[in-house]
Structure formats: structure tokens, C-alpha cells
Amino acid sequence: DGGITQSPKYLFRKEGQNVTLSCEQNLNHDAMYWYRQDPGQGLRLIYYSQIVNDFQKGDIAEGYSVSREKKESFPLTVTSAQKNPTAFYLCASMSVLAGGTDIQYFGAGTRLSVL
Amino acid sequence: AQKVTQAQTEISVVEKEDVTLDCVYETRDTTYYLFWYKQPPSGELVFLIRRNSFDEQNEISGRYSWNFQKSTSSFNFTITASQVVDSAVYFCALPSDNDYKLSFGAGTTVTVRA
Fold first, then answer.
1. Which of A41, A90, A100 sits opposite B100 (nearest CB)?
2. B9 to chain A: closest CA residue
3. CB contacts < 8 Å between A and B, how many?
4. Quick check: B44 and A106 CB within 8 A?
5. pLDDT digits over B30-74, tens only?
6. How does pLDDT run across A22-50, given as a tens digit for each residue?
């Protein structure tokens, strides 16, 4: 099946620990995105990548890092510098053939909590 | 900058009632697309509709319909004869100019009671 796979579904972080959220897509999309969602709020963009080996900061990049070594993979690391990491994290991908007007498709999300 | 406002925080209806969700946007672009997404309790965002600013014709797709009015910068979405499975958070979104990013509204939580 084509789609976006996020893992794990639930993740717990200890104080001072870095954790990595996985996002894999087999849609052959060039662009990939990470969003953060807090309860009762909309989605805020953390990082995005339009092409392999290149990525840009979104609106709330502080305390996060990403890599894009392969077209199908865009892992997000929540570092110890992110003091309030508890949130729901969503990964998305999009074809860039139609420019910025194509549809973003989303994974099922990872719920991160602090122990 | 692009901005999307969904003034309705929560809407609660009884099954079979119609539900209209409001979306007001701000953009400097002369041509643009608008999107609606649904987020059921499972969490995954599901694409519903995309509309081009060139076409203000209102359309119906099954139980969904939308009302796009460029003059008032509004892109409202209606669910006709609501069902319990329509219970979800609904987001309106607008692409940033040339950046391949989406600006989302805060979302409207729809609860359909049996």
C-alpha cells in the first residue's frame, strides 16, 4: 500500500534525552514536512524538505533537528533543548510537480510524552 | 503573510442536521488554492477538498459542499445530513506563496450526537 508510515505511535522521553521520530513514505514525493500539534490547536510547521539533502526551518524549529539523506525518509529528532516536547507530531509529504498547490498527505502521527 | 481564521471552536449537532464550517483567509496572492482537511479521533489528517481561486463555482460532492467567495475571502464547508462518523476536527488551509508550505487554521471540532 502507498502511504506514509510514522513510528512509533507512542513515545516517551526522559529529561535530557534526545528522541527520534521516524517518517517513511513510498509515494515518491519530493517534499516532506514535520508538524507539531498541541491540544486544541492547529498544526505548526517544524521543518520541511523539498529535496534530498536539503531542508528548511519552519515556524518552530528550535529544539528540533532533521535529516534528509533519502527521498523516502525524513526523521525528526527532538533534542534535550526542546523544553516542552509533549505534543502530537505529524509527518506529511507532497509531490512538487504542481508546485505548492498539490495535496499534502499525512501519516498517522506520533504522540510524544515526557516522563 | 498567509493567515487562516476558523472562528468556530466547537460545533455540536444531532445526527442528520447540517453543519457549516466557516473559514476566512488572508493572502497577498492573486491566485491560490484552499484546502479542507479532516482529523478523526485516530489523529491522521485526511484530505477532503481543494479549490482554486479561479473557480468560485460552488460544488457538491456527496454530503459535502463548499461555498467559496473571493469577495469576502471565505471558504465555507458544509456537511449535509451529518452522521456520527463525521465527528472530527476540521482544518482549513492555505499554501504559502511559493514556499510549498501550508498555513492551517486552528480547527473546528465537530461532534455529531446520535
1. A100
2. A40
3. 59
4. yes
5. 888 899 999 999 999 999 988 888 777 777 778 999 888 888 999
6. 999 999 999 999 999 998 788 999 999 99
- The SS3 of residue A99 is helix
Q: In chain A, which residues touch B (CB < 8 A)? A: 31, 33, 40-43, 45, 48, 50, 58, 88, 90, 92, 94, 96, 99-101, 103-109, 111
Among candidates B37, B43, B95 on the partner chain, residue whose Cβ is nearest the Cβ of A100? B95
Nearest-CB residue to A42 (from B52, B95, B105): B105
Judge whether B46 is closer than 8 Å to chain A, CB to CB: yes
Which residues does A99 contact at the CB level (< 8 Å), separation at least 6?
Answer: B98, B100
Q: Is the predicted pLDDT of residue A100 greater than 70, yes or no?
A: no
C-alpha cell of residue A28 = 515518491
**Cβ neighbours of B80 (radius 10 Å):** 14
Task: Give the Cα-Cα-Cα angle B52, A35, B103 (nearest 5 degrees).
Answer: 30
The whole-angstrom separation of Cα A56 and Cα A61 is 9
- Residue B13 gets which letter from DSSP? E
